[in-house]
Amino acid sequence: MSRPLRRARAVDVAARAGVSVATVSFVVNGKAEGRVSPATRLRVLDAIAALGYVTDASARALATGRRRQVALLAHDMTNPFTAQVAAGAAAGIAEATEGTGHLLLLLAAGLAEPDVEPVGAATVDGVLINYPGTLPAGRPDLPVVHLDDPAAGGHQVSLDVAVGARELAGHLADLGHRHVLYLDGNRPWSTFVERRAAFAAEFAARVPGAVVADDRCDIDLGSALDLATRRSADWRRSGATVVVAATDVQALGVLAGLHAAGVAVPAQLSVAGFDDIPFAAVSAPPLTTVALPARELGHRGAVLLAGVIEDPDAPVGAPTVLPARLVVRGSTGPPATVTLSA
Amino acid sequence: MSRPLRRARAVDVAARAGVSVATVSFVVNGKAEGRVSPATRLRVLDAIAALGYVTDASARALATGRRRQVALLAHDMTNPFTAQVAAGAAAGIAEATEGTGHLLLLLAAGLAEPDVEPVGAATVDGVLINYPGTLPAGRPDLPVVHLDDPAAGGHQVSLDVAVGARELAGHLADLGHRHVLYLDGNRPWSTFVERRAAFAAEFAARVPGAVVADDRCDIDLGSALDLATRRSADWRRSGATVVVAATDVQALGVLAGLHAAGVAVPAQLSVAGFDDIPFAAVSAPPLTTVALPARELGHRGAVLLAGVIEDPDAPVGAPTVLPARLVVRGSTGPPATVTLSA
């Protein structure tokens, strides 16, 4: 029972099983029910296994152990930062696996938890994780690359968010701000911890009597819009002259909420964010933000993942850290000199 | 050689093939190379086929003919409209196939053509097409649902873009505009043809001596920004007092380009779009646009596709057409009374 040297075809399977090619086709295309008897179907499956017949991607995956898919676990594909990471990852995986046709499976779930079942069910060869803490269960050997999660071990591509946060702190200190409302994302992710810690430390070092107060909300435009509409009077009454948001979608939501509440930006309250999504350049006013290279993050991560899939025993190298830089636009200005009365 | 009534386990495969469970594991996980002889590997594969052993998604797919994946063919996942369609489709496919674990594979390629190889290679059970004209080759029987492509035959979910376009034409006519620069997408898609035709017909019916001039560019923010920066003086010199873009990303790019060129919106030139992506509400100025329900488009399409996958012979019903409506914001106003001098 030796395997033929040339690749088996459906006609070979049919000959071995003593059936027609049409019968083989019914079986491999899942159309045997009502057309092919169970006994005949088993003969065909025996022949398929014996000949190593590769019918399509599923059969190829079974024969080779390769699924030719990688997954990107992400938070919310409607966040333009995530969409850019995904676009970069799709380009990177196509480039790095040229000829093998690896595909990107996007696992994102809006504000809910992503469904990681396909990772556990072994439909992928590796995973890019841009959703810290979402570890695929039950597959400890699965190749994984962490994106923008500086606290993660293992293979990772990160962003120099601390450098960007310090530049932003310096910019606001130079403008004369002393009291910041820091609007964090309501996820305990290391990239957010690092952004806030670096910003607060630099701001405190630059500004005598600096205050960095906290608020937090979901990482989307609507949640920040609602929060800013409700809370902006409190923020200003407390003495805050600038809102720094952990992400641009939150910062843009704050801009919309302040507009709804009749608060002028930056005359009465400055606003800044992190990411530099394309829409940050066309907001009202255009947003001062720490630019993070989302597309390159996804691209580099995918190329790294392809390498780990090829050689799972490759040692973990030093993390790739991509640069961040401050982009100053119209949403930040000198602090308002008059505090809003209650 | 009958199949056991209970589901076969790895231990059953091992017993039939006369090998250890570890050997079965090596074979099904693609780690046989260097560990399991070719003859033994074949015995294991024979046993797998004979027992109907279901190891993981790939094997299950081979046994059932189901891949438990559907694809969304789309233009550019960084366009928030597409991202919303994808989010809706992911939710819809999860909801409609509860318990079967269908996943959404996103095939989008920025401004290039998407790679439809996985569709041809049968890694999916069906396809949502939001990229008109991209037909998967070689699988004429594959379940397909067309999204926002009114000229497509077969199963489809569409948007009432004509109603929205007429509302926009009426709004601009009421403001006193007579000369429109219509910035189309540079793709010959039926939804764009329908938007433009309905707009132009309604505008002509409302405004004596109406002029609707054309320009076009790629469907992204940067392309429209470049075009508006270069061409806005020509547009105004020709007499246009408003730019209507076929998509919001183009309209937002025009806003940024007009800002760069020093053209005041809407005082010197009004701007409007189609889609109502979330960022249209926070642009400078906020964008007047025809709201199209992207998330519901994806959701309804996925539910329909799941039904077609379940029953491929189901008759094609009347197309679902989701409503569009005009949202008036600050980017449209009365026409400038003084024409720019050359």
Automatic annotation (TrEMBL), chains A, B:
It comes from the Bacteria. PROSITE patterns: HTH_LACI_2 (PS50932). InterPro entries: HTH_LacI, LacI/GalR-like_sensor, Lambda_DNA-bd_dom_sf, Peripla_BP_I. Keywords: DNA-binding, Transcription, Transcription regulation. The keyword Transcription applies. Residues 8-64 form the HTH lacI-type domain. Signal peptide: none annotated. GO terms for molecular function: DNA-binding transcription factor activity; transcription cis-regulatory region binding. This is Transcriptional regulator, LacI family. It comes from Klenkia soli.
